[in-house]
Design brief:
mainly alpha; 2 strands; binds flavin-adenine dinucleotide
Amino acid sequence: MPTLLRGAETAFENRMIDRDPIPTWQDGNVALLGDAAHAMYPAGSNDATQATVDGRVLAAKILEHGVNAEALAAYDQELCGPVSELVLRNRRAGPFGLLNIVDERCGGMFDSIDGVIPQAEHAAFMAGYKAAAGFAVETLNAVPTIIEKGLRVSASG
Ligand SMILES: Cc1cc2nc3c(=O)[nH]c(=O)nc-3n(C[C@H](O)[C@H](O)[C@H](O)COP(=O)(O)OP(=O)(O)OC[C@H]3O[C@@H](n4cnc5c(N)ncnc54)[C@H](O)[C@@H]3O)c2cc1C
């Protein structure tokens, strides 16, 4: 057991969980975002990252449509489908997929991880996940901003 845990008076063990995607995050004048909308395994830099994207897209839609259900519907339309796919992909791909492969091959017991999953296979697996998850730095940096600097919205729309 690591020294940090051994030195603690109490240690809580919480299960890592995700939730099956739901068809829509919007119900009239209410919309879900963040973990309430799409709890997923926090792997591959995902989860809080999506909550941040939710906030930005929602703000952009409110600027475009006003503070109303139309803005919530546009936000839901843009993100619910793709993020639901991401939740499912996160179960089988990325770091968790890699752990499953290791488990299948040796039950988690090994002397050298390279003997279980060679570096080239490891790199190819993760490259596929990163491409699907949109981790390409150049592509990401080339995306234009969706909210112009200084824009404000008032509660009346
Ligand atoms: C161990 C761990 C590691 C993680 N690592 C990463 C990572 O590396 N990268 C990443 O992107 N994400 C990671 N995450 C996920 C990330 O923490 C969540 O996705 C993020 O915090 C979700 O933000 P949220 O605002 O939607 O929900 P939360 O952060 O859960 O905020 C919800 C808030 O609502 C409050 N609340 C609940 N009920 C009520 C109520 N009835 N009235 C008032 N307030 C209420 C809660 O107290 C809480 O403050 C990790 C999570 C865990 C547990």
